[in-house]
């Protein structure tokens, strides 16, 4: 991992309260895996005391070399509101890459990706990673869900890669008016994938895990949670382990990506 002060390359508004910020980074990020994250210290003298975790959304390449990382985030509080005001050339501090990312086996050919809202952040990185691993994009189905059309992000990015997309919204403004897990289960019944990768709100993940267990499909989930340190010191990001004497794991060290079979959600 690398602790460093980095420059803001851009900080562009995507939709309503969603932004993409580009940051310079150590060349060691070339080895980062989808699902890993950084801890970001907000700029300024009146910034929040504690850093916040953000999934790596994309690796920025220049001339074939790693030049930076991109973070997709939503303005939800004081810290991210302050972050949205950063300009090109501003300095922020980051620590990373941290945690365990998604794992891939060579026999994975047909893949389902499920994302709810800003849970799509690590999944674009994952999609690019799968393509480099030789997975045929047309064999991948991406299920994106959100409250409204403004919460559906990155659909064009997945389409450019060549992956199939299924959109759902709670209000019916785009795609089907239902939870994203509804078309997921229908698709599972029609054509079983080798693995499901998912990231989003906890209730969505619970449902995805239940569907995966029902259909006996391998499933990995990335858990979003508040962290104070990102390195296991504060022990504030505990999740319950299934059927073991060692009852808890920590999202920052053991995750944020977990095999669904070990979690008690």
Describe this structure as you would to a colleague.
By secondary structure, this protein is an alpha/beta fold. The chain folds into two domains: 2-98, Beta Barrel (Elongation Factor Tu (Ef-tu), domain 3); 111-262, Rossmann fold (3-Layer(aba) Sandwich). The chain is built from six helices and 16 strands. The strands form three sheets. The chain has a seven-stranded antiparallel beta sheet. Strands 11-10-9-8-12-13-16 form a seven-stranded mixed beta sheet, sandwiched between helices. Helix 4 (181-190) packs parallel to helix 5. It is globular, with a radius of gyration of 18 Å. The model has no long low-confidence stretch (mean pLDDT 93).
Low-confidence stretches: none
Alpha plus pi helix count: 6
CATH architecture of the largest domain: 3-Layer(aba) Sandwich
Q: Report the sheet with the most strands, covering strand number, pairing sense and barrel closure.
A: 7 strands, antiparallel
Mean pLDDT: 93
How many runs of DSSP E, i.e. beta strands? 16
Task: Based on Cα principal axes, name the global outline.
Answer: globular
Helix-residue proportion? 10-25%
Order of helices and strands: EEEEEEHEEHEHEEHEHEEEHE
The CATH homologous superfamily name of the largest domain equals Nucleotide-binding domain of ferredoxin-NADP reductase (FNR) module
Radius of gyration: 18 Å
Total of domains: 2
The level-1 CATH class of the largest domain: Alpha Beta
In percent, how much strand structure appears in the residues?
Answer: 35-45%
CATH topology descriptor of the largest domain? Rossmann fold
Judged by helices, strands and strand pairing, the structural class is: alpha/beta
């Amino acid at each position: 991992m690398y602790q460093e002060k980095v420059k803001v390359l851009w900080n562009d508004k995507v939709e309503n309260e969603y932004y993409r910020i580009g940051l310079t980074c150590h060349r060691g990020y070339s080895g980062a895996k989808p699902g890993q994250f950084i801890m970001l210290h907000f700029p300024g003298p009146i910034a929040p005391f504690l850093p916040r975790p953000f999934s790596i959304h994309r690796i920025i390449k220049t001339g074939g070399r790693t030049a930076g990382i991109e973070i997709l985030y939503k303005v939800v509080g004081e810290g991210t509101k302050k972050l949205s005001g950063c300009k090109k050339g501003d300095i922020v501090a980051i620590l990373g890459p941290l945690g365990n990312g998604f794992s891939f086996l060579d026999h994975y050919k047909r893949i389902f990706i499920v994302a709810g809202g800003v849970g799509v952040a690590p999944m674009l990185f994952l999609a690019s990673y799968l393509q480099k691993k030789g997975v045929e994009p047309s064999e991948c189905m991406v299920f994106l869900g959100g409250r409204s059309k403004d919460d559906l992000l990155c659909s064009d990015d997945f389409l450019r890669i060549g992956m199939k997309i299924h959109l759902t919204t709670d209000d019916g403004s785009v795609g089907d008016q239902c939870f994203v897990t509804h078309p997921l289960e229908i698709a599972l019944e029609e054509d079983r994938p080798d693995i499901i990768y998912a990231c989003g709100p906890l209730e969505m993940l619970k449902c995805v895990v239940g569907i995966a267990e029902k259909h006996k499909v391998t499933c990995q989930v990335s858990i979003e949670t508040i962290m104070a340190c990102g390195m296991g010191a504060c022990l504030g990001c505990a999740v319950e382990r299934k059927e073991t004497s060692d009852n808890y794991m920590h999202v920052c060290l053991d995750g944020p990506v977990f095999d669904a079979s070990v979690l008690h959600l």
